Amino acid sequence: MEVRFRINKSLLMAVLAFFLTTGFRVYDELFEYSKNLEIFSAAYKEVGKNFVDEVNAGDLMRKGLDAMLATLDPYTNYFSESQAEEALLDRQGEYSGVGCRVIIREKYPVVSEVFGGYAFSKADIRPGDILKTIAGQSMKGKSIGDVSVYLRGAPESAIDLELEREGVTIKKSVTRVSVVGKNVPYYGMVDENTGYVKLEQFGQKAASEIQNALTDLNKGGKLKYVILDLRDNGGGLLNEAVNIVGLFTGPGRLVVKMKGRTPESNRDWTTSSTSAFVNMPLVVLVNSHSASASEVVSGSLQDMDRAVIVGRNSYGKGLVQNYFNLPYRTQMKITTARYYTPSGRCIQLLDYRHRNVDGSAGKMPDSLRKKFTTNAGRTVLDGGGIRPDMEVDEFAGQPLLKYVMDERLLFDFANHYRNTHENIGAAREFKLSDSDYETFSDEVSKKLSDLLEDKIRESIKKQIADGDLADLILDNGKFAETLESQVKIKLRAFEEPLRYQLTREILKRYYYDSALYESSFDGDPDLGAALNVLHNEADYRRRLLP
Asked: Helix or strand or coil: residue 349?
């Protein structure tokens, strides 16, 4: 039996035109990739053969890859074989190492945080210690990634370190152990009816850990309010973020949309969790270090009018990365999509597509941020992270207090305090003495005024373009003295928030467990604001309405 089809000529021409134009575009793209790969390969070989000095082929290629990917965004990265294994362990929340975080100061890695129960903690290595050498290798000029490679290794393997603590050289030998990151390092009752859960990271089983924590807190049936703390949480697994939202909304709710160039990058994520906490009043705490998955949770709950967001504007990372395997067990992490909250907004703050003249990524100005609406009709904006429903200024509106934090003056004083005080007694009973605070105030006033004087001097010289005249203006015998006295007056006016921040920094040097969290409840401005809004039903509901 013969079947004949009759095709409309105009339709046929349209189909042919589509495939012809699309085919040529694909061909052009493939040709460009092929041509440039050939050029790159040829240049790479010629440098290797003809450069005047010996060339490390692997190092040259790595630098080329890193420089190329840096033009895209900070999240698209290449991983060597060892780095790929570490990245996998990080995503799983486990690795073998020493249990610490480091920062770079004056070209050397400095211990910024020590995790209780692990190698550095057991070896009495403290925040503020400068890592001069690891396994006999100088750490000067090393990046944080480089330092991590040296610190990590097989479980039970030993590593020799040379530290500097307040000018004194100390040698240590520590044994690496398996480090398991905690998603929920603490949960407890803030008062009779309010539960508090601190989420440190979005690792595997983060949602089930939160559910277990809430179930435990509700054993007596007294749990009426929940505070979920996402401050300083840089994100993690997206599926865990979706499952966490489901704990407070129930199943079938859209949490996030992913949109990329390829069909595989496009996906809608909806909740599937069932939970007993879908109607419980909820506050989510965020700050400028809450990013990625933290913003998925806070942004979607805000769009659904399900929680009051309290704190400070979040980081603003609306980009999604996926891992791709490369030859020789290497990997790449590539930004494949942007994510959008249920209202349709993308919260990405920095625009890597349209860079400034100097190559830096600019922030989206408020005037260009688009308006979206929550389920109840509240206005929310895209392009700048998650803006809290209830903003709390931890520095009491004083840039000077923020400057104290940014310059790590609290960090340095707390380190010295730990090195001169063997113990401080029970965490809940610790109070910083007036004499110790006065010492802190004097030191900070002097350091801060010196820093500000340098900046003021530099600014004036730029403005008047006459160094001698600037020196004459500033070196009148009273400028430095007046500046220091004014700084000290300012700091005295805001002693309460400074005492709280300093006390918390000092406690972190001695305690790693629940005592640290519980001792910080009193005086925490974000927590205080959260309790106020939760315990005022009218205020809570008002903040969730247009």
From this structure: coil
**What span, in angstroms and rounded, lies between the C-alpha atoms of 97 and 174?**
10
Residues 404 and 395: their CA atoms lie apart, in Å, by 10
CB 498 within 8 A of CB 413: no
User: Alpha-carbon dihedral of residues 168, 172, 178, 183, nearest 10 degrees?
Assistant: -10
Across the range 148-168, mean pLDDT stands at: 92
pLDDT digit string (tens) for 449-472? 888 888 877 777 777 766 666 666
Distance CA 425, CA 423 (A): 6
What is the tens place of the pLDDT at every residue in 209-231?
999 999 999 998 999 999 999 99
pLDDT at 5: 44
Domains of the chain and CATH, by start: 94-180 (2.30.42.10), 186-391 (3.90.226.10), 399-532 (no CATH)
| Mean pLDDT of all residues belonging to the chain | 88
For residue 311, the cross-strand partners are: 286, 391
Helices and strands: H and E segment counts in the chain? 17, 23
Helix, strand, coil % over all residues of the chain, rounded to 5: 45, 20, 35
Name which residue leads in pLDDT, 263 or 469.
263
**End-to-end CA separation in angstroms for the chain:** 67
Question: Contact, 306 vs 541, CB < 8 A?
Answer: no
Three-state SS string across 462-516, please? HHHCCHHHHHHHHCCCCHHHHHHHHHHHHHHHCHHHHHHHHHHHHHHCCCCCHHH
Residue reference for tokens 């802190």: 440
Beta bridge partners of 95: 179
